[in-house]
């Protein structure tokens, strides 16, 4: 839950706004974004990682308001497509503080980024190094470059595998020598200004030892570049991926603790390797925006089914589903929910919150105890939906994407409006022949 979320006589209040009032004004489903919470988390990262650049990973969720908050809180911005770049430009984000990611940026995207004056492009393939070199030559400008490397670490939530993960699409392999070759090519390319190495080991990570192993491997390459090519790269990016609590079983590290650990590892390793500590950066997305938002749905139908063995499960259908939160269906993610519109003293029963899509896998919350008297018209709130929900949303079954309603100090305002049927039909140009 976001920090200002609380219940007043059974009614959920976020940012000083009662969810019932919010729904009366904006309807359901709606993403409710707690601005103060977002800003507090952004600030916590910036303060804890004071000597770093902190890039907010826009892929988690981006709109012009959020881009503005990111700028105001002193963070930089990571975008990974021309579309995300367009949002940053519309928001008037300082392009020097934008970093451009992606494993298949088009020539048009690269040109747009270079012309806009982005601070750096993170290159991910030899093709891209060549492409970017051409773009820079054509536009007559130079651009900062980071080389994304594969540190051979794959992290998943509570674990990491330190020998795996060469077999995926991102980055240059360190072990195969591609990373060193990429550094060579960037150094040789006119207009590409090498800033340093970049790595990102995964998302929703709790086990910080994965970061440690990755940092050591990337620093070893950083030292090799210094020794063999005589170049001490000024920067290094350790990526994002810091986990958040989706259920009470998750116990995420706080930014200050992460900063202490990560800085400690880097400083120690640099001493051992005899290189200067590069200017570090990180790219948290989920850990900033994830907890800031909850999704509010209206209950439409309630159905009890018998399970093998005689137990029962209550299927609670809400007015959204996998189109506004694909994470349960796609990643088997765990979410929780709460009755948000009233107090209930009814006994808890085992429930499952499902959407309104024509698909059995359309589940939002797999298992949660809900009050036995839950009924159509009740509001349910699902916390922790700020990251990778709206940004991965779809129009499956021609549902309209919900709005993002920002709340702060007792007031709400729409920052991304609800889609309309006109929006839906706008691209359907019909048979023009
Ligand atoms: N930097 C890079 C290069 C990334 O690829 C990502 C995420 C991040 C930073 C931000 O990671 P975060 O701090 O948000 O974990 N859709 C998935 C997550 C995909 C993450 C992709 N890259 C999900 O919903 O769990």
Automatic annotation (TrEMBL):
Give all residue intervals belonging to the Orn/DAP/Arg decarboxylase 2 C-terminal domain: 291-386
Molecular function via GO: diaminopimelate decarboxylase activity; pyridoxal phosphate binding
Give the Orn/DAP/Arg decarboxylase 2 N-terminal domain ranges.
36-289
Annotated residues that bind substrate are located at: 286, 327, 331, 359, 388
State its Enzyme Commission number(s). 4.1.1.20
Q: Which InterPro entries match?
A: Ala_racemase/Decarboxylase_C, DAP_deCOOHase_LysA, De-COase2_C, De-COase2_CS, De-COase2_N, De-COase2_pyr-phos_BS, Orn/DAP/Arg_de-COase, PLP-binding_barrel
Q: Entry's SUPFAM superfamilies?
A: Alanine racemase C-terminal domain-like, PLP-binding barrel
Binding positions (pyridoxal 5'-phosphate): 241, 283-286, 388
Pathway listed: Amino-acid biosynthesis; L-lysine biosynthesis via DAP pathway; L-lysine from DL-2,6-diaminopimelate: step 1/1
The alphabetical list of record keywords is: Amino-acid biosynthesis, Decarboxylase, Lyase, Lysine biosynthesis, Pyridoxal phosphate
**Residues where N6-(pyridoxal phosphate)lysine is found:** 59
Q: Which domain of life is it from?
A: Bacteria
One Gene Ontology biological process? lysine biosynthetic process via diaminopimelate
Active site per the UniProt annotation: 358
The cofactor required is: pyridoxal 5'-phosphate
Give the catalytic activity.
meso-2,6-diaminopimelate + H(+) = L-lysine + CO2
Which ranges of the sequence are coiled-coil? none
Q: What does this protein do?
A: Specifically catalyzes the decarboxylation of meso-diaminopimelate (meso-DAP) to L-lysine.
Q: How does it assemble?
A: Homodimer.
**Entry-linked NCBIfam families:** lysA
Q: Write out the similarity annotation.
A: Belongs to the Orn/Lys/Arg decarboxylase class-II family. LysA subfamily.
- Protein name as catalogued: Diaminopimelate decarboxylase
Organism whose genome encodes this protein: Nocardioides perillae
């Amino acid at each position: 839950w976001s920090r200002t979320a609380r219940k007043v006589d059974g009614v959920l209040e976020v940012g000083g706004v009662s969810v019932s009032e919010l729904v009366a004004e904006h309807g359901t489903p709606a993403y409710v974004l707690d601005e103060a919470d977002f800003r507090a988390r952004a600030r916590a990262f910036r303060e804890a990682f004071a000597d770093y650049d902190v890039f907010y990973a826009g892929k988690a969720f981006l709109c012009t308001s959020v881009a503005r908050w990111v700028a105001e809180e002193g963070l930089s911005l990571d975008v990974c497509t021309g579309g995300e770049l367009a949002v940053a430009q519309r928001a008037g984000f300082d392009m020097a503080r934008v970093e451009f990611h992606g494993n298949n940026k088009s020539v048009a995207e690269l040109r747009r980024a270079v012309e806009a004056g982005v601070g750096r492009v993170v290159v991910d393939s030899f093709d891209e190094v060549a492409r970017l070199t051409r773009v820079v030559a054509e536009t007559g400008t130079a651009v900062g470059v980071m080389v994304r490397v594969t540190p051979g670490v794959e992290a998943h939530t509570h674990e990491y595998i330190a020998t795996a993960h060469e077999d995926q699409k991102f980055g240059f392999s360190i072990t195969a020598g591609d990373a060193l070759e990429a550094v060579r090519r960037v150094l040789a390319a006119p207009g590409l200004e090498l800033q340093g190495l970049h790595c990102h080991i995964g998302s929703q990570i709790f086990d910080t030892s994965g970061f440690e192993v990755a940092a050591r491997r990337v620093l070893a390459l950083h030292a090799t570049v210094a020794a063999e090519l005589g170049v001490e790269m000024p920067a290094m990016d350790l990526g994002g991926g810091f986990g958040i609590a989706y259920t009470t079983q998750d116990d995420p590290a706080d930014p200050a603790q992460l900063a202490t650990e990560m800085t400690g590892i880097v400083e120690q390793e640099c001493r051992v390797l005899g290189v200067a500590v590069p200017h570090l950066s990180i790219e948290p997305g989920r850990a900033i925006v994830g907890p800031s938002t909850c999704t509010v749905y209206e209950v439409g139908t309630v159905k009890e089914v018998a399970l093998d063995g005689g137990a029962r499960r209550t299927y609670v259908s809400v007015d959204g589903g996998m189109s506004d939160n694909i994470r349960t269906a796609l990643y088997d993610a765990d979410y929780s929910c709460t009755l948000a519109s009233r107090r209930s003293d009814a006994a808890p029963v085992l429930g499952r919150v499902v959407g309104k899509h024509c698909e059995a896998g359309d589940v939002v919350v797999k298992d949660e105890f809900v009050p036995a008297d839950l009924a159509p018209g009740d509001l349910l709130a699902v916390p922790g939906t700020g990251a990778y929900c709206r940004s991965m949303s779809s129009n499956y079954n021609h549902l309209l994407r919900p709005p993002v309603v920002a709340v702060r100090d007792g007031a709400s305002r729409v920052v991304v409006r609800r889609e309309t049927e006109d929006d839906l039909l706008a691209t359907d140009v019909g048979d023009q022949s």
